[in-house]
Amino acid sequence: MDLVPALEEPLKQPLKSVLGPATAKVMAEHLGLHTVGDLLHHYPRRYEERGQLTHLADLPMDEHVTVVAMVADARLHSFASAKAPRGKGQRLEVTITDGSGRLQLVFFGNGVHKPHKELLPGTRAMFAGKVSVFNRRLQLAHPAYELLRGDDPDESVETWAGALIPLYPATAKLESWKIGKAVQTVLPSAREALDPLPPSLREGRGLLPLPEALLKIHRPGTKADVAQARDRLKWDEAFVLQVALARRRHTDAQLPAVARRPSPDGLLTAFDDRLPFTLTDGQRKVSREIFDDLATEHPMHRLLQGEVGSGKTLVALRAMLAVVDAGGQAAMLAPTEVLAQQHHRSVTEMMGELAEGGMLGGADHATKVVLLTGSMGTAARRQAMLDLVTGEAGIVIGTHALIEDKVQFHDLGLVVVDEQHRFGVEQRDALRGKGKQPPHLLVMTATPIPRTVAMTVFGDLETSVLDQLPAGRSPISTHVVPAADKPHFLARAWERVREEVGNGHQAYVVCPRIGDEEDDPKKAKK
C-alpha cells in the first residue's frame, strides 16, 4: 500500500494557478506551501467562537499574533506635526477587550480614516500585528484587521455568533484570515483527496474518511467536528510514520552481517566466572535476546532501556565480549568525555586482567580496552587508533572522536550507543559505516521515552527493557527542587545532596549541558 497516494489533479495544482502569483509567492516563501494539497494540509492551530472573546492577558511580547476581540472605545487625537497638512497630525487609539484584559491599537496619519469609520464600540473583529509596549501598556501599532459580520442573509444571529473561526499559523506577510480565505477557495478540492486507509481499517477505528476530515478541520460546524477531524488526521500522521519505520526495519533486516556467536569457553565465560554476583532474571532475559540477534546473519537493531542502576552497562559489556569472542571488535559511543571516561573505568574494573590483552599479567583470553576522545594527547590517540586498525583492541570506548574519518577498525562487529537521543542518526550511521559489513547495533538509554519520541528516534529498533534492580541496590529516588524561591533553591539542592551522602547514599545532580565544551579541549580552556 502506498503511504502517500498520488494526488489527483485538483490537489496537485500549483497555488499560483488558483490564488494568483502574488499570494502563492508569499505562501511558498514564508509557509512552504506550493500546491492545493499543501494548503489543505495547513491546519488551523486553534479556533475562536464569534461570541467568545480571546485571552489578551497572555499575549507574548515581540511576536506576531492574531486575536479576536471587541472594540471597547475609540478616540481620535490631533497633534502638532510638521509633516501633516496645516501642521496637524492625527492619531487613532482603539481599545479592545476580552472581558478581563485590554489591548490598545494605534493608527497614525492617513491610516486612521478607515478604522475610524469601522472600529466603532461594540464591533467584533480579528486583529493581527506585532505586540509591543508603549507607556507600560501593550499595544499593536497599525494592526491589520478583519471585521466579523454575518454576511449570509439566511444565517441566524445565534448560528453566526456560535460559529467557529479557524486561526491558522500565519506570518507578518500573510494574516490568518487571508489564509482562511485562500483555504475557502481551494476547499472544494478536498473532496478529491484519495484516502490511504482502506475502509475496513478506517471503519474499525471509527475514523472519518479523509475528504470529510479535511472539510471539517477547516470549516467545522461544532467542536465535535474539530475533535473527529483531528483524530483522523493525527492517526494518519502516526500511521504513515509507523509504516515508514517498519519499512526501514525491514530494509535494515535484509542487510548482510557477520553472525557473532561467543566461544563456549572464551572471554565471555571467563568474565561471567569472575563476577562477584549473580545476574538478575531481567539481565539474563535481555542478554538472551541480544545473543539471539547477534547470532543471525542480519544486523541487530535493538534498544536497551532501563533506569539508572539496572545494569545496562553490564548487559552491553557481555554483548561486546561475545562479539570479541567471535573475532570481532566492539565500539561504545558516549555523548561526553566524562561519560566515556566513566564507562572506560567501569568496564576495565569489571574485566580486571581480562582487559589487559597483550600486557604482562593479562589473562589468557584477555583483550585490550582502549579509550578514544577529542582531548587525548597525540601519542595516546595514535596508539589507540593503531590498536583498533590492527585488531589488538577488541573494545573501544569514546566520544564523537570515534566517528572521524581517520579512525579505522580491523573488524567492527558491534556498535553500542549510550543515550542515543544525544546523537543524530547521521552520527550513529557514520560509526556503523566503519564495519566491513553492517555491524550489529545496541542503543542504551535511561531516559523515560514518551511514545512520540520513541516513534521518531527509536522507531527502527526492537526494544528490550531492564525493569528490575540487582539485589542489594537501593531504589532510585528523584527530588525536584522548586525554583520559586530563586535566591535559595541552589543552596537547598546542595543541602539535599549532603543529606543523602551523609546517609551513605550516592547522589547525582542533573543539569543542562550547554555547547560542546566537554568534547572540545580548546573551548574547555576558555
* Regions with little confidence, pLDDT below 50 for 5+ residues: 1-8, 153-161, 513-526
User: What portion of residues belong to β-strands?
Assistant: 15-25%
CATH architectural name of the largest domain:
3-Layer(aba) Sandwich
**CATH T-level topology of the largest domain:** Rossmann fold
The rounded distance between the terminal residues' Cα atoms is: 56 Å
Q: Helix/strand-derived class?
A: alpha/beta
The CATH superfamily of the largest domain appears as P-loop containing nucleotide triphosphate hydrolases
Estimated radius of gyration: 32 Å
Count of beta strands = 15
The CATH first-level class of the largest domain comes to Alpha Beta
Helix % is: 25-40%
How would you sum up the global shape? Answer: elongated
Number of domains: 4
The residue-averaged pLDDT reads 81
Please give the order of strands in the largest beta sheet: 11-12-10-13-14-9-15
- How many strands, what sense, and barrel or not for the largest sheet? 7 strands, parallel
Query: Tally the helices: what do you get?
Result: 19
